[in-house]
Design a protein that fits this description.
Layout (H helix, E strand, L loop, with lengths): L6 E6 L4 E6 L2 H7 L3 H11 L13 E4 L13 E7 L6 E7 L1 H9 L3 E5 L6 E6 L2 E6 L8 H12 L4 E4 L2 H4 L7 E3 L3 E3 L4 H7 L2 E7 L9 H16 L4 H7 L4 H7 L21 H7 E5 L9 E5 L5 E4 L1 H7 L8 H14 L3 H16 L12 H13 L3 H5 L2 H9 L9 E2 L2 E2 L9 H9 L12 H6 L8 H21 L4 H6 L5 H10 L5 H23 L12 H5 L14 H15 L9 H6 L3 H7 L8
């Protein structure tokens, strides 16, 4: 194969052994890489019903056939496993030197199983792979541990690691790198911790063989130039995703006080414009010329890399209107290895429980010191922090007394930073995300609001969610490259089949690449259904009760609420267009059309399929 390395690295931590394995050209062409490889491996090799924190669970780290080449925003990788937070398929995307080095070491994925006897890390140097004791790293925060590894192996090493929250198996612990890059919201860091795996270090010196190196270089140079000329480029470089704070405030979608409201009285104090005045530097992923990691000095004099999601969830959603203090919480989350979205949601949930007298803590809205203390308690699973370390759904199930009504989650994953009281399309996007309530797969909210159909529950919205899932969650997550050049600057999607042809020699049309996305979504959905069996139903694809039952009370759109009956009809439109039955399960005919006949037969051992 060209463009692909054609090799996986298998790691058995229990036995302390590694081996290299070839994969087929059919696997490459059907699943491309990244998320595609991850879901296929997990589907084929995991025993249904296993404990996600058991040694038998697998951790898959996968790149794609465009990763690491001199192409726009190609320094990305996917980390995936059965999720300890949701019990379903879980993954995340990280931009890192580790992605480039993994490719240059000669592999397209690493598959880790078992549990090391002692804290360890995986060291991969081209053809050499070994498991190294990590006693001196265990207990260190992610920043300190990475610094020590880079001193040991050089600044160009690619490092993925966990902080104390991963070691303590907090169910929304992430995998972290480069002091602010993180991925794996549904607990990929906890999976590493359960395996006594502190870090993975990648050093690669090989060149990936491609079909047409000259054409790939030419296309890359033209594409970088194209991005530089985009109309919104300069503003993007100034604010990146932080511009979304003002946009959400203007459109009543900024999560505020645990998603009670869509506007925040102190939004200006945490906005992109305010961030611009504080910004000290900007960081980005490898091979990116539209870097978006805006760094400011936080209230404790430390650097903190900000983006929209972490500022909204650790700012307005907990009632904190001081950007430098928000930055402290964000930096702590990165050091401890906690997902910032789930952390913000969990703190907000705790604040509301405190307000209602359901938790024995004094934690009011905007309480910075209280939020700091709770963040550490969650990471180390101390006191109330232990209860909250499993996320808001588990906490609500234990607390009871109606608290599930303000546990802002879907399928166990906390909602990303968009209030959907009056955004049924974005609510559908959250609800049908393949990992739980995440924005990455289908960020339709901008289109929904600008289309003039914000209040509508129509086929156009079902179509748009599927379109974005095919592009963002399918094509980009399997190639693996970043979606931001396209969605933020209007970079033409037709570049990607051209990149892929030059790299691999295999000619895919854009539509064929998007069909790969349909295949991945069917298989990810099948994974969830297999795990939940008879408990699966369309209720799994419903947004939190708050958006249906508790109208907003502030802003120009006060009184907004989702309509449950209309949402249910919209969900059915989505199912019909996907070729899924009324339970939200892919039909046999759909699985056959997507080349998943064997997978359909396997799924039918657990639940009857509609033909």
């Amino acid at each position: 194969m060209l463009g692909w390395n054609g090799h996986l690295l298998r790691v058995d931590l229990t036995k302390g052994k590694t081996k290299v394995e070839e994969y087929s050209a059919e696997m490459a062409e059907k699943f491309i890489g990244g998320r595609g490889f991850a879901i296929k491996i997990l589907w084929d090799e995991l025993e249904p019903g296993l404990d996600p924190l058991s040694p038998e669970n697998l951790l898959v780290v996968a790149v794609g056939p465009l990763t690491g080449f001199p192409l726009p925003s190609s320094g990305k990788m996917v980390v995936a496993s059965k999720s300890p937070l949701t019990g379903g398929y879980g993954d995340g995307n990280i931009g890192s030197r580790a992605a480039v080095n993994l490719r240059k070491a000669g592999y397209d994925a690493v598959v880790v199983k078992g549990k090391a006897e002692k804290p360890s890390y995986l060291l991969v140097e081209d053809d050499k792979a070994e498991i190294v004791e990590a006693g001196d790293l265990w207990g260190l925060d992610s920043f300190k541990a990475e610094k020590r590894l880079l001193e040991r192996y050089g600044r160009e090493a690619g490092v993925l690691l966990i902080g104390p929250s991963g070691e303590n198996m907090v169910r929304f612990a992430t995998i972290v790198c480069q002091e602010g890059r993180a991925g794996g919201r549904p607990g990929m860091g906890a999976v590493m911790g359960s395996k006594n795996l502190k870090a993975m270090v990648f050093l690669g010196t090989k060149e990936v063989k491609v079909a047409d190196a000259e054409e790939l270089r030419r296309l890359g140079a033209e594409a970088y130039k194209d991005i530089l000329g985009k109309e919104n480029y300069d503003f993007w470089k100034r604010q990146g995703t932080m511009a979304t704070i003002e946009w959400c405030q203007e459109n009543s979608t900024l999560p505020t006080y645990n998603f009670r409201e869509g506007v925040f009285e102190e939004a200006d104090a945490i906005s992109g414009t305010t961030m611009e005045k504080m910004k000290t530097k900007i960081r980005g992923c490898p091979h990116c010329n539209m870097t978006c990691g805006n760094v400011i000095e936080d209230a404790e004099g430390r650097e903190s890399e900000l983006d929209y999601e972490n500022v909204a969830m650790l700012g307005s959603d907990i009632g904190l209107g001081d950007l430098r203090k928000v930055a402290v919480l964000n930096r702590m989350a990165d050091e401890l290895g906690l997902d910032t979205i789930s952390l913000g949601s969990t703190i907000a949930f705790a604040m509301e429980c405190s307000e209602k007298g359901l938790l024995d803590i004094d934690l009011g809205w905007g309480d910075f010191e209280g939020a700091k203390a709770l963040t550490e308690d969650i990471a180390y699973r101390r006191g109330i922090g232990n209860l909250l370390s499993g996320g808001v759904k588990r906490a609500a199930d234990e607390i009871g007394k109606g608290s599930i009504k303000w546990a802002m989650q879907i399928k166990g994953l906390e909602c990303s930073a968009y209030d959907c009281h009056l955004c049924p399309g974005m609510a559908l996007s959250f609800a049908t995300s393949p990992i739980g309530a995440h924005h990455k797969d289908a960020w339709v909210i901008s289109w929904e609001i600008s289309s003039g159909m914000r209040r509508e529950y129509n086929e156009a919205k079902a179509d748009k969610v599927i379109e974005f899932q095919r592009i963002r969650g399918g094509m980009f997550e399997s190639l693996v490259t970043c979606r931001l050049p396209w969605i933020e600057l209007g970079f033409d999607l037709e570049w990607y089949p051209r990149f892929l042809h030059a790299a691999t020699g295999v000619k895919f049309s854009l539509e064929e690449l998007l069909t790969v996305g349909d295949r991945l979504y069917a298989l990810m959905r099948a994974f969830w259904v297999r795990e939940y069996k008879g408990e699966w139903g369309r209720v799994m694809d419903f947004p939190p009760p708050r958006w249906f039952d508790e109208p907003t009370t502030k802003g120009p759109l006060k009184g907004s609420v989702l309509d449950r009956e209309k949402y249910d009809a919209l969900l059915q439109m989505y199912y019909d267009k996907r070729g899924w039955d009324k339970r939200g399960i892919p039909k046999k005919s759909t699985m056959r059309r997507l080349g998943l006949e064997k997978e359909a037969d396997e799924l039918e051992k657990f639940i009857k399929l509609v033909d």
